[in-house]
Amino acid sequence: MRMLRYRTAALLLPFFLLGPALHGGLATFRWSYVTGAVALFACYLVATCLNDVFDVEVDRAPLRICARPHLAAPALGLAYVALPYAVGLAAAGAEPTSLDVRVVAALVVLFTGRMLLKDFRDRSGDAAFGKRTFLLVHGKRAVIGAVLTCVLAGDALLVSVLQSAVLIAVVQTYFAAIVFELYRLCRSEDAELAAIALGARMGNAVILTWLGFAILPEGEGDVFVVALAAVYWLAYLLPAPAATTAAAPARESTTAEPARAS
After folding, report:
1. At what angle do helices 140-159 and 165-187 cross, to 10 degrees?
2. What is the count of structural domains for the chain?
3. Which residues are within 8 A (CB) of 139 and not within 5 positions of it... i.e. 6 or more apart?
4. At the N or C end, where does the chain have fewer CB atoms within 10 A?
């Protein structure tokens, strides 16, 4: 079924698992995680339908979200982050705490910035159909400014909830790379998708590194964090093979970001 994009749906799994991991719920297997995963993909279908609404030329929903460029990205952030996290907590039988509220707030803010960048890939088609995306309404520099604000705010919120000085230090290096890619995006017209793809990859590194740290026993998490950071930074710094350089941005954009339904 075209609506169910498996690679994009896999993006939701870290958010689903993070809630139980932060509550120590992944130490043992529970069948509720299986049923929760099924519910997660059902949530993804709902989120994809919501994404379809943004792409319809005439939106008949009462709020007309597609006509409100400031609401689209936050709505997708809630659909792709808050819902999976809540489903994960329910699967673990964990009661939400103030920590969960701060975690979700940080991740939704960061994901909102990621969704604003998605408009670059769809810019030509959106312009042709007269769709009022944030990018087309406010321009490139305004988008980059909004994304940078999301990154800085999300980073500040994350620092308040991360449990390790090593984890905090490594995550800061990821955010430094993301900010650098935003600078590249601002300065370049030819490498926009490449910069967005590399920034998205380092965004993935933030959640996956944190998830691994939360799952592992105390004392092993810091070692894992440093090892995974070395892998991500090696991949980030190594040049792409010449034969695949041109194709890489499009592939990364498709797999690292929730795809816009057509």
Report:
1. 180
2. 1
3. none
4. N
Which residue did the predictor score with more confidence, 193 or 61? 193
pLDDT at position 130: 67
pTM here is 0.80
- Does some domain include residue 156? no
pLDDT in tens, 148-177: 999 999 999 999 999 899 999 999 999 999
> Looking at the domain assignment, is residue 46 inside a domain?
yes
CA distance 254 to 232: 19
Residue 101 to residue 117: CA distance in whole angstroms: 25
Cβ proximity of 102 and 161 under 8 Å: yes
Tell whether 204 is covered by a domain: no
CA distances from 255 to 95, 127, 146, 188, 262 (A): 33, 23, 23, 23, 16
For 233-246, what is the mean pLDDT? 69
Mean pLDDT, residues 81-108 taken together = 92
Instruction: Give residue for tokens 């312009």.
Output: 127
Query: What is the percent of the chain with per-residue pLDDT over 70, rounded to a whole number?
Result: 74
Is 29 a domain residue?
yes
Structural domain range at position 81: 1-123
Written as six digits, the tokens of 41 are 């993909």
Q: Provide, rounded to the nearest whole percent, the portion of the chain with pLDDT above 90.
A: 39
